[in-house]
Amino acid sequence: MDKTAAVNQYIMEEVQDSHEWVLPFIKVHLPDFLSVHGVMLILCASILLLLFGVLYRKKDVVPHGLTNLLEVFVLFVRDQISIACLGDKDGRKMTPLFCSFFFFILGLNLMGLIPIFRAATGNVNVTAALALITLGFMIFGSIYKNGFIGFVKAFVPHGVPWPLLFLLTPIEFIGMFIKAFALTIRLFANMLAGHIVIFALLGLVVIFGWAALPAMALAMGVYFLELFIAFLQAYIFTLLSAMFIGQMVHPEH
Amino acid sequence: MQDQATHATVEVPSHNGEADVMAISPMMMGLTWVTFILVTLILYKVAWRPILATLERREQTIRTAQENAEKIRLQLQDMEEKRRQAVADAEKQAKEILAAARRAAEEAGRVIEEKSRREAQILVENAERDIGKARDNAVAALRRESAELSIAIAGKLIGSNLDDEKNRSLVDKLIGQL
Fold it and tell me: Residue A30 is part of which domain span?
């Protein structure tokens, strides 16, 4: 029982935000304004700046190596997400935002899979902040593009008998917030759950000893699944953000 | 055991349950916004804009190159078509020249043949005429000879000198009746 409690506590410590960063052999105590997840955000931002600001060779006409790899993702975000959801003109204009979304979330997800780091996307505040940015673009992008009347019209569905509008318009309006909320929970829950599963499987070894050794293989399998999910969730968050913004900016589609 | 667990939770009071996973922290949200917006702005300047510009430039280059290649391909096709046409024309002309030459040669041969045939015919006709004339002469000479011989024989037989003119016409009549 005490082992189970210890494992439970360890898992919770691992997936929750705290002001103690546990590294091999040392514990780093962080100041009040900065938690471990905050450090992860700053680290991820620095890695992105290093990757795209320094290592990415933008002048290359024919890309090689790392540039080639990153370019595949940039092109994917531009063509399959941004332009696909917002049309050619707005899509090209909005690509930088979605590239930032994609690489920022992907970086945080992947960092969560490295043992000394934590998954900041498993923190609901981080995903909520990101989803609120999407919500902001949904609201202000629509007002900027279509005016306030156009923004309100986006909540009025076409081709519906008018008495139903009294019911549907509020639902559509609430739906906008629900979409952002769903974005928050989807990313947060996926990352959190994945990490809990891995830790729980490893915890079985602590609790049951050698008998639970096969759980290691299972944990390994889940780890690779998480690797895939890191990309998948970054893609889904970006795609859905683009779709939601697109729906608000071009309500006729 | 229970003590230990409680002790552990007391030690880390903020890490004791699911509620904490959902805890709202304005600090964390603020930090996320600051980090994300800063990263987006900086990367927009140093990365996204130049990267996207390079991509578009490259796409433009490739599109232009493709169009040029297509144009060159069409030109080549056109030239190939013209070349083939020229060769075909030359062949046709050569054939016509050959045919004309053959016709001329045949005509010339025919004329020569015709001419030689006519000359041969003339030769044959001349020869026939000469032969006819010689035969007539021979027949006339023979007739005269035979008349004279007949008169001489008859004169000798009857012993009298007959009037030459009268006898000869008589003998001619006789011979004519032979």
Answer: 2-249
